[in-house]
């Protein structure tokens, strides 16, 4: 399968089911892997929330849920230090289900506190789409936790779309039928085709931080950001800029009709209780 081998090249590892101990020297990675099982069992993962701001109203209309690991010895560990490993070992599959389950519980708390969010994004790894039961399991979690599917949005990277075209399209199709939205994360850095953008029910493009960080000074990046905003709107999608850190980046995005932003200029990702404080003050 061509798409599969292309995705495999991009990610540089094989999809074979991981067998503990086999062909593997003890390494920090190996240690981390057994740590990850412990973390799942003992509830050491936590979702932080980064506000999403609507540029027409200046109000918080949503958030992105981002995983954090409260490690008993190493303290707070960020995703870049455990997501890639968990994608290699396949542990991202149960971790991803946990994230959906937890976001559902958090959404209920947010709602009960009287806040009405439009969308909360939860990241899905390309690796989760290799699980044949993805849509089915998500469905089950949504039912058991009574998650409001209108609020839930899954953030996919372009690599997820490449990994296995038909299966991915089926899973996305099934989930979108029950009202879940999808956004395309880190847009502009991957390999998605216009054909796929048209074919899949994608509701929003998220402009990668690497472009946002160089506006408005780099003329190439300003043109790329403008092009992505126009592309999204012409295809009837929303557009969200990631990693907004400065006033001048924000001004540029407002002038160019970007819909929403998230970034340190407003807030970094914060624990749920702090996110609720931010909502209360907004
Ligand atoms: P992402 O989904 O593109 O998330 C945005 C990342 O940019 C987050 O990093 C966020 O903290 C960071 N960010 C937001 N605003 C700014 C800013 O203004 N400046 C800078 N320098 N950074 C900003 P984080 O939380 O470390 O997550 C990194 C990546 O890990 C995420 O990128 C996502 O791909 C992955 N990830 C996080 N949580 C999950 C999860 O639950 N499941 C999966 N599959 N992946 C996750
Ligand atoms: Mg994301
Ligand atoms: Mg991103
Ligand atoms: Mg990213």
Automatic annotation (TrEMBL):
EAL domain location: 29-282
Domain of life: Bacteria
Name of this protein: Diguanylate cyclase (GGDEF) domain-containing protein
Native species: Neptunomonas qingdaonensis
